[in-house]
Amino acid sequence: MFGQMKRNVVHFDLDTFFVSVARLGNSALKDKPVIIGGHSDRGVVASCSYEARRFGVHSAMPMKLARRLCPSAVYLQGDMDSYSHHSRVVTDIIRSEVPVVEKASIDEFYLDLTGMDRFFGCSSYTAELKKKILRESGLPISYALASNKLVSKVATEDAKPNGQMEIPFGHEKGYLAPLAIERMPGVGLKTSALLKRMGVETIKLLSEIPEPMMRNLLGKSGIALSRKANGRDDSPVVPYTEQKSIGKEETFDNDTINMAFLGGELVRLTERVAFLLRKQQRLCGCITVKLRYANFDTVSRQAIVPYTANDNVLLAKAKELFAKLYDRRMLVRLIGVKVSHLVGGYQQISLFGDTEENVRLYQAMDTIRKKHGSHAVMRAVGKLERR
Prior knowledge:
Layout lengths: L8 E6 L2 H9 L8 E4 L7 E4 L1 H4 L9 H7 L4 E3 L3 H18 L3 E5 L2 E5 L9 H16 L3 E6 L2 H11 L4 E3 L5 H5 L12 H9 L5 H5 L3 H8 L1 H10 L15 E12 L2 H21 L2 E12 L4 E11 L2 H15 L6 E9 L2 E2 L11 H17 L15
Parallel strand pairs: 2-4, 7-8
Antiparallel strand pairs: 1-6, 1-7, 2-3, 5-6, 9-12, 10-11, 10-12, 10-13
Enzyme class: transferase
Family: Belongs to the DNA polymerase type-Y family.
Keywords: Cytoplasm, DNA damage, DNA repair, DNA replication, DNA-binding, DNA-directed DNA polymerase, Magnesium, Metal-binding, Mutator protein, Nucleotidyltransferase, Transferase
């Protein structure tokens, strides 16, 4: 590794985040098995405490099965408003201390401390930051310090709960070697099954497969997987910024005052934006609606929302913003919808009240859109003929 720049990358992950937030508001939940998700038996588990995991409960499990495995657990409805608030609290603490931060999801962060060891010592600096997060937010958090994002993320799982690890520079491959291939990010069920049929069950064995063979086996992703198995990952820590956004807008052929049509366009645009969020595996924390009147005056309003990619949540807020915006009774020439404050995450984490059927409905609709385009399936109101 002579000549290779020594990077210092930290992966922070809030422990059982939803459960920890619930315990902040109710200390009686401490040390008890806690399961968060939809109340009905057809709902799914969004999060569960370590105490519940000992009974075999895990995220995305049907609630009916979770109740059977752990009937003594405390079952709670999710509260995305609260989770979003506490996520922002932790984000602000980290950003006040570290110049380069990537908010990977609602509850995990990458920090690039490269070069800071000359002044502070990355190990002690990160340990102090962990203490500060716990002290100021009340939330337990685990981390791993390594030379790249891949190793730091994998090692954080070994640091949990409420722990810390450091993988010394040059020891990345050795650390990964004995781990099961399922621990490697990017190895899903199909890839895992394929590799196991070849007798590859550990990352060490995966690292010994020549790159050309991996390319033949899995294409470009095989090359990337081979490099990861050898502990190599050059992906940068992408600075988090509230300015990242996804938006869609429509300028009409003819200015209109038809409220049914404008409402339909608002629904159509919001659905498209929500689909793009889910396609990119992101959640948003802010939505903006824009109007341009016939005289070219342009107005907009935005609102903070619980982190979500749920059509229903975004549509309700978009309609509320539109009602506040449209106050002139003038012809409208353009309408737009934009979401921002983006973080990584999946739509399902905001569907605490949804049944398995509703979750599958969203997934089925998105599958159709990915194959045939975002207009392939939408609410009927969004299909109103343009005027």
